[in-house]
């Protein structure tokens, strides 16, 4: 419910200010309270025009010294007919019988049919009246008087008109997850791309973990690209520019497909990025699993992916931190350098002699076996061509098989193929 509270404190008295703050506190229990403190009647008129354009409950408070005049001016401006309330008049006669009838009339005037909240003496008695879906209520800026009117007057009236106090839920304790402890130890954050399916995740794990989980860091519409490419980009761009120690994450909407057995199945895509690369998986539903149950399971899978990525980085840091034992190289003496040069020259000479001998042997036997080689090569060539053709035909068969369906289906956990024809559905 939208509530407008307008407080008129012309004198600037601290007691009136304290009473205005107390009224704000009391009425905030019923909804969002728009509070405005005014120092002149002209400001009250402008504030009322704005309040009646947007609020269901309009409350005006005025300090006691100007309460009656402010009340009459407001009711006149609103063109509300008034009447003298008998209960207020009777209270005045008991508390201040010496007052003249004109002053009594000023304090006893209320809208016709209004609910009246009596004060102890009749002075500054509050009231409430309803017109359509709006309620106008006026109370004195006197803490004791206003508080006394609430339990037996204001609160029962609001209940009769369908206005109840809002139950304020106590903040839930933060969820303890091993992934959160790991992320905190590593000084990392996870930035989640905006998506309807993440609302439940935020509800489950967001409260108390704002130092680790940051939501709605990036949003973009899918424009023709595949779900995997789209999710990869979402997770990568979810990480703010300049952030080097963070992950980006995203979960897609639910896709609906039909298995080869004719059963309707669901799947979502889950992505996790470290800024340089993204891992995207397609997460399939179990038989008879609803889209909502699939999303809950996808949350667990995403947390597992985060834990695995943290573990990989920790293992990498440990390996990078290991130092090999230093290799100590002793300097050569002058005699060792001379021996090494002589050995190198001898090795080159022996290598050249071995090559020359090998060439002589090859030339000698080449002429002897030339005729025999020609006959054998002809048969080997025919056999080689046949084997190559058979091998090429096998490769072509595999390519043809992939074109006719193997590449457009994916095996789920039960081994059934799920059709690539899918429908995207927003859940959350």
Describe this structure in words.
The structure is a single chain. The chain is an alpha/beta fold. It folds into two domains: 2-160, Molybdenum Cofactor Biosythetic Enzyme, Chain A (3-Layer(aba) Sandwich), CATH 3.40.980.10; 178-319, Alpha-Beta Complex (Maf protein). Helices cover 47% and strands 19% of the residues. Strands 9, 10, 11, 12, 13, 14 and 17 form a seven-stranded mixed β-sheet that branches. The longest helix is centred in the C-terminal third of the chain and has 35 residues, at 334-368. The radius of gyration is 43 Å and the shape is elongated.
Largest sheet: 7 strands, mixed
Summed over residues and divided by their number, the pLDDT gives a mean of 79
Uncertain spans: 320-332, 381-420
Radius of gyration: 43 Å
CATH architecture designation of the largest domain: 3-Layer(aba) Sandwich
Number of helices: 12
Beta-strand content estimate: 15-25%
| Helix content range | 40-55%
* N/C terminus separation: 25 Å
Give the overall silhouette: elongated
Could you give the topology of this structure?
Elements: E1 2-8, H1 14-27, E2 32-38, H2 41-52, E3 57-62, H3 67-77, E4 82-84, H4 86-95, H5 101-108, E5 109-111, E6 115-117, E7 126-131, E8 134-140, H6 143-160, H7 178-186, E9 189-192, H8 198-205, E10 213-214, H9 227-237, E11 246-251, E12 254-258, E13 264-273, E14 278-284, H10 291-321, H11 334-368, H12 370-403, E15 410-411, E16 417-418, E17 423-425
Parallel strand pairs: 1-2, 1-3, 3-8, 9-10, 9-11
Antiparallel strand pairs: 4-5, 6-7, 7-8, 11-13, 12-13, 12-17, 13-14, 15-16
Helix pairs in contact: 1-6, 4-5, 7-10
């Amino acid at each position: 419910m939208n509530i407008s509270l307008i407080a008129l404190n012309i004198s600037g008295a601290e007691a009136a200010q304290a009473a205005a703050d107390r009224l704000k506190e009391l009425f905030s229990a019923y909804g969002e309270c728009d509070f405005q403190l005014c120092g002149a009647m002209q400001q009250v008129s402008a504030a009322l025009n704005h309040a009646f354009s947007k609020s269901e409950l309009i409350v005006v408070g005025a300090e006691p010294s100007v309460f009656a005049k402010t009340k009459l001016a407001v009711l006149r401006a609103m063109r509300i007919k008034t009447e003298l309330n008998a209960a207020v008049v009777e209270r005045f006669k008991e508390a201040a019988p010496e007052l003249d009838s004109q002053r009594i009339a000023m304090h006893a005037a209320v809208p016709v049919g209004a609910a009246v909240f009596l004060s102890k003496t009749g002075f500054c008695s509050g009231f409430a009246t309803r017109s359509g879906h709006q309620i106008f209520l006026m109370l004195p800026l006197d803490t004791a008087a206003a508080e006394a009117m609430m339990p037996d007057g204001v609160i029962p009236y609001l209940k009769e008109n369908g206005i109840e106090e809002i139950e304020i839920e106590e903040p839930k304790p933060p969820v303890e997850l091993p992934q959160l402890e790991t992320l905190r130890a590593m000084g990392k954050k996870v930035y989640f791309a905006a998506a309807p399916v993440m609302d439940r995740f935020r509800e489950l794990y967001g409260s108390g973990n704002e130092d680790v989980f940051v939501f709605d860091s990036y949003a973009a519409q899918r424009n023709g690209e595949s779900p995997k490419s789209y999710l990869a980009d979402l997770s990568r761009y979810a990480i703010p520019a300049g952030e080097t120690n963070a992950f980006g994450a995203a979960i897609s909407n639910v896709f609906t497909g039909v298995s080869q057995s004719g059963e309707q199945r669901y799947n979502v895509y889950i992505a996790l990025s470290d800024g340089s690369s993204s891992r995207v998986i397609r997460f399939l539903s179990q038989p008879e699993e609803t889209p909502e149950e699939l999303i809950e399971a996808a949350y667990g899978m995403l947390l597992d992916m985060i834990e695995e990525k943290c573990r990989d980085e920790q293992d990498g840091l440990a390996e990078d931190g290991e130092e090999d034992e230093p290799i100590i190289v002793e300097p050569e003496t002058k005699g060792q350098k001379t021996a090494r040069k002589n050995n190198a020259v001898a090795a080159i000479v022996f290598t050249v002699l071995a090559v020359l001998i090998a060439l002589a042997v090859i030339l000698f036997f080449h002429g002897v076996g030339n005729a025999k080689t020609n006959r054998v090569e002809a048969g080997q060539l025919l056999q080689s061509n046949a084997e190559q053709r058979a091998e090429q035909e096998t490769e072509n068969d595999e390519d043809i098989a992939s074109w006719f369906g193997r590449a457009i289906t994916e095996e789920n956990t039960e081994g059934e193929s799920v059709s690539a024809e899918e429908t995207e559905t927003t859940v959350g």
